[in-house]
């Protein structure tokens, strides 16, 4: 019998083409269609899907009708406090369905919501609130202690609202007030509908230096992300997406949520990822899609076989950061029919999608869309991260498989239909992300800060972060911020921070090289780090020497130290043993344990 089924590469190309066409069709009319924001579409979605599940948490569940009603209450809470366009409310809360109801409702009236990283403490938390220019802060009761610790330094006039279980506090609880407000649909007399270009959210992203930057995200972009990914994933009303990613990030908080809501699907929300309960949870909830970051997939491949790891309904895993070696283990072991890997920056205009399922690649731009998604790789100085230029003063494009910084072309001011860089609340930071006179005089491009390479077939591959940032545990870590905290620790006389590779782990682990005096104590260092930095930013390794032997910019020492890593250091190294919350000497046996995965990181 003749086999007429298409070859695997034909099937992949056909699937990819269909995904691109759907995404283009879904977003074609989005900027010019009313309502131009996701929040205002909830009423129509509630009419269509009524009592079908929209968001399911561990102790809280909303149908489409209930989600619309709940968000209407938060919209009226905003109106009752005189908030509107130009105002900002900060939201600091663990994952739960009401998180979505809050930002959908508050943004409905033109007010923006700043989604604060739940790991932020001390200076980073204060900075996040101040950068937003917020007048109100809604904080989950589980995170109240972080806010209480900086209460005397909060911006004057900031009103704090507690969400969740009652706790001794001078601040008001928000739920009693919300319960008194109407669930009915908002009318035009109550508030003016924001435009697509108006700011909806602030999402924080770590740049190459300093504290987190607040990126502006417009209503148009929220809706575009939602519709685009609904098309890419071919979302149906019967789909259920498993989401255990932080909802203060764009992937877990916007893409995973919005893509399902616009097509009538539902989202299963968990506060955090658990490798032990993952397959039971996915199977029991009958999820068909899993939103991932690469390290979660690696964790799953390292776990012992689970009785239900292939007894699920997953048809798709969608996310970013899935390296080729993990991909090749993950997909066949767990019987995942399709993987959609993508690359995107919250604040940027560079987006890549691997619709063909090519292991290790972060995406490819189809030739027929190259004009719409102009992306290039340029050569940079490895020490300074400065783009290299030719004799004419223009940037130099990379060749095939040559690593360079990924940049995306910014539209001309007259092109109102193109995707734009909406920038940060910090104008100087926005300016630093733009590169001018790149390939022709007068052009402008957005700098991603990421090194990539592109093969002969046009597939892009992530290589590394550039500058003074590395990625660990799904978060960007600013080496400048960590070094500043280290230098304020008693007994630390100087410090530099860099990322090092650890076998079997995604991204780079933090490592610090420090010099100390007689006051230094590792126990005090542990306490100091806990008080001033989120856990993912704590250096995993500390190199202690008599001198850093640095240049004025630290670049030479960083490069040399990073190459030596934790295993070949010429100075003694200590390991941050998180299981025991202490630093221990990183001797040869410990290096071996870390290398073969026996020591918990």
Write the layout of secondary structure elements.
Blueprint (H helix, E strand, L loop, with lengths): L7 H20 L14 H8 L3 E4 L4 E3 H17 L7 E5 L4 H12 L3 E4 L6 H11 L3 E5 L3 H5 L10 E5 L8 E2 L1 H4 L20 E7 L7 E6 H15 L6 E4 L6 H12 L4 E4 L8 H7 L4 E5 H9 L13 E5 L3 H10 L5 E6 L6 E4 L20 E4 L25 E6 L17 H6 L1 E3 L7 E11 L5 E6 L3 E4 L2 E4 H9 L4 E9 L8 E8 L5 H11 L8 E4 L10 H10 L8 E5 L4 E4 L2 H8 L6
Describe this structure in words.
The chain has 17 helices and 27 strands. By secondary structure, it is an alpha/beta fold. The strands form five sheets. An eight-stranded mixed sheet has the order 2-1-11-10-12-13-14-15. The N and C termini lie far apart (54 Å). Residues 1-8 and 551-555 have low confidence and may be disordered. The chain has three domains: 8-272, Rossmann fold; 368-465, Roll (Luciferase, domain 3); 469-595, ANL, C-terminal domain (GMP Synthetase, Chain A, domain 3), CATH 3.30.300.30. 29% of the residues lie in helices and 23% in strands. It is globular. The longest helix is centred in the first third of the chain and has 20 residues, at 8-27. A hairpin with a 4-residue loop joins strand 1 (53-56) and strand 2 (61-63).
Structural Rg? 24 Å
| CATH top level label of the largest domain | Alpha Beta
Structural class, from helix and strand content? alpha/beta
Q: What's the domain count?
A: 3
> Roughly how much helix do the residues carry, as a percent range?
25-40%
Low-confidence stretches: 1-8, 551-555
Largest sheet: 8 strands, mixed
Order of strands across the widest beta sheet? 2-1-11-10-12-13-14-15
**Discrete helix count:** 17
Strand residue content: 15-25%
Task: From the 3D structure, determine the CATH topology of the largest domain.
Answer: Rossmann fold
Question: Any idea what the shape is?
Answer: globular
